[in-house]
Amino acid sequence: MNTTISSSGRAIDASASVASGVGSPENLVENTTTETNHGLIIAISGIATIGGFLFGFDSGVINGTVEGLQTAFNSNTAGTGFNVASMLLGCAIGAFFAGTLADHYGRKALLVTSAVMFIVSAWGSGAATGSLEFVFYRILGGLAVGAASVMTPAYISEVAPAAYRGRLATVQQVAIICGLTAAFLSNYAIAKFAGASTTEFWMGFEAWRWMFWIELVPAAIFLAGLYFIPESPRFLVARGFSDRAHSVLTRLFGERAATEKTQDIRASLADDHRPRLSDLKDTSTGKLRRIVWVGIGLAVFQQLVGINVVFYYGAILWQSVGFTESDALLINVVSGAVSIAAVISALMLVDKIGRKPLLWFGSGGMALTLAIMAISFSQATLDASGSLSLSDSVGTIALIAANAYVVFFNASWGPVMWVMLGEMFPNQIRGSGLAVSGLAQWLANFGITLSFPILLVSIQLSGSYGIYAVCALFSCFFVSKYVRETKGRELEQMQG
Questions:
Q1: DSSP letters of 151-218?
Q2: 74 vs 71, 125, 129, CA distance in Å?
Q3: Closest by alpha carbon to 325, among 84, 67, 103?
Q4: Residue that terminates a domain, selected from 247, 274, 301
């Protein structure tokens, strides 16, 4: 007799079910989704992803304000560099503590806290009168970005059904790219109307200040929207609020499924204590669990391929090889639009072909395009002013390769890494696992961002892209050996 186990743990005679037609895959899917409130799940996931939009906006808005910061605060190059990079330190701290705090106070509570910090940071960054004050508010914004970066995919994974959980979590990356693009466009529009980022724009304040204050609008919408979403049912069960969890699950999946899911969630948690950071250790060896190292590896490799060099230094990069400032900014906008299209393609495929194939595809594509960029920039020459210059044909190849690289990243590692981190950990360690992985991700981001200007001087663009290409190649082997597919699996089935 062929026997399977239902989501509630009951044994089922699979052969008899299939023979009768009731147990066919198609009917099983239909039976488990007829009571699911798809509209509500999509709506609350959409509200949660506004955190991703703010993640992108807050990361991108700094690009148009650098000259204004230098002028307003009379800062040198090193000081301005720290003003720009300071947010990343806040991101690392926010990502680390968000997971642990969310295990104590709830996923929704941490999202609300991040929305408030987005609002305070946006206002304070624009109102700052000195570098120290500005850095304080940017670090506060970094705390919000870090918290939102790990809590949004975690929350979505804990309220969405396995059948399309990956697609909903991928919307997070769409929102991030949309936020980046919105920041680029709003900076461009404000600077154009004002004449420059350092000149007065409205109500006696310089344009660069308004670039930050624009963020108040989506941040306020995020805070208001969070009022309408429920707390994560997995968190509620972990904290002993099974009745509230059952109520939320009933709204999401119907009465019958709610009872089974509540039992499954309770069974997946340790009986003797609530989730805590020490759960990340294997009790038999005293070392970090293998799944935690896989999460850290995914988080770090996403940054080692150098994607944020494009996000943070895109304009400088293209100007260094002969493009005008206007052309460089246009390339950034085009890259943003291409990124959105690529993420949408990942959204269409992540629940059909799975997470691992997309990661393989992305790693191979990035390794190839980064290698082409490295070879292209190795042929650059110095002009009379000492700047790098590419011939028209090589420059075209480099431009095509760069945009293809962005496509490969945003169709794979960009969204899929966050999908994986949001769902790969067992319920008992999801918050803590996200905390450690998020910390690793933002520290790697900080390291890559800080090291690129040094690499640009020492080994130039060709050497920098060569290093990122090697890292992309290594990520192929990492995915093949260590990453397990999570497509279609319930969160209660994740093994640690």
A1: HHHHHHHHHS-TTTHHHHHHHHHHHHHHHHHHHHHHHHHHHHHHSSTTSEEETTEEHHHHHHHTTHHH
A2: 5, 16, 11
A3: 67
A4: 274
Give pLDDT, residue 116. Answer: 94
What mean pLDDT is reported for the chain? 77
The pTM is what? 0.70
Q: Are residues 318 and 444 in the same domain?
A: yes
pLDDT at position 17, please? Answer: 37
| Res 219: pLDDT | 92
Hey, CA dihedral for 244, 245, 248, 249, is it positive or negative? negative
Same domain, 212 and 292: no
Is residue 482 in a domain?
A: yes
| CATH assignment of the domain containing 385 | 1.20.1250.20
Domain end, chosen from 227, 259, 274, is at 274
Digit-coded pLDDT (tens) for 385-427 = 555 566 667 777 877 888 888 889 988 988 888 888 878 888 7
- Taking CA atoms, 213 is separated from 89, 193, 210, in Å, by 22, 16, 5
